[in-house]
Amino acid sequence: MNPTDVQTAAGQFLEELNRSPATVRAYRADLTHLQRWLQDSGKDLDAAALEAYFAAHHWWAASTQNRKQTAIERFCRWSQQHGRLDPDPTRHLERPRIPPPHPRGLRRDDIERIFAVISARQTRDTLLFRLIFETGLRISEALNIRLDDLDLARGDEHLTVLGKGAQRRTVLLDDPRLVNALRKYLRSLDYTHGPLFQAQKNGRGGPLRYQSVQERWQRYAALAGVTCTLHQLRHSHATELVNGGVSLGTIRKRLGHRHIQTTLRYAEISDASADAELRIWRRKQR
Question: For the CA atoms of 230, 232, 236, 238, what is the dihedral angle to 10 degrees?
């Protein structure tokens, strides 16, 4: 397909595209950019031209190339279905690999600012959020804790959680403030079986909903003026462990990761921790 035919076909493709206006604008920009490059380079739209096109723009971020490639692939499939292009030149294009986003933890001071705005009467909320922060539990794991999962024998306080893949693991409760809050909360309950964290609506208890918990945390964060998602409490716990020198193997077990590669995303330690480790190493060399 020559550049002129690409321009004509792209116009018809976009008219039939059943997507949001923003998506149509993005596709139009990407296809116009390709058409102009084909025209300037004197190439027709085929597999070799597309390889040359992406090679000529090698500085594009992987996310940018992926977006443009999606637009081009859908346009080429449409063109092939309408007898304008054969074969599909995108069949052998490789997708660039987009690395997973680096988990972003917050400083403890920022998170404590959020805890400070939670009313003293909201003991359930405070305990739930602090449990996630001090243990790195997934939100779903925390909400599924039952009273029978707790073992508060002094000196060996721990709980058992059901993680991903129906894998059970034991999580040490090693923060004294968390353990004391948990004991106090248990004394206030009027039930001895069932979920640890229950909703109180119309006088009847039931399991807390994921969405409800997310909304409550966001209200507290907004009140404290701190941007922090509930899931970032887990990231923050992992970051503290890494910066504290805890091994990645121990962190993997603590967080319930099946593969160490997942835990490695947290391995970017702070400059201060790196400097301290280097100073210790240097002193050993003297």
Answer: 110
* Furthest-apart CA atoms within the chain: distance in Å: 79
| Full domain range(s) for residue 29 | 3-81
CB 44 within 8 A of CB 38: yes
* Radius of gyration from C-alpha coordinates of the chain: 27
How does pLDDT run across 38-63, given as a tens digit for each residue? 999 999 999 999 999 999 998 888 88
d(CA 119, CA 219): 12
Point out the residues that are catalytic: 138, 164, 231, 234, 257, 266
What pLDDT score was predicted for residue 80?
A: 92
pTM flag (> 0.85): no
Is the domain of 23 the same as that of 154? no
Domain of residue 268, CATH code: 1.10.443.10
Pair 77, 113 in one domain? no
Based on the structure, what is the number of domains in the chain? 2
pLDDT at position 272 is 60
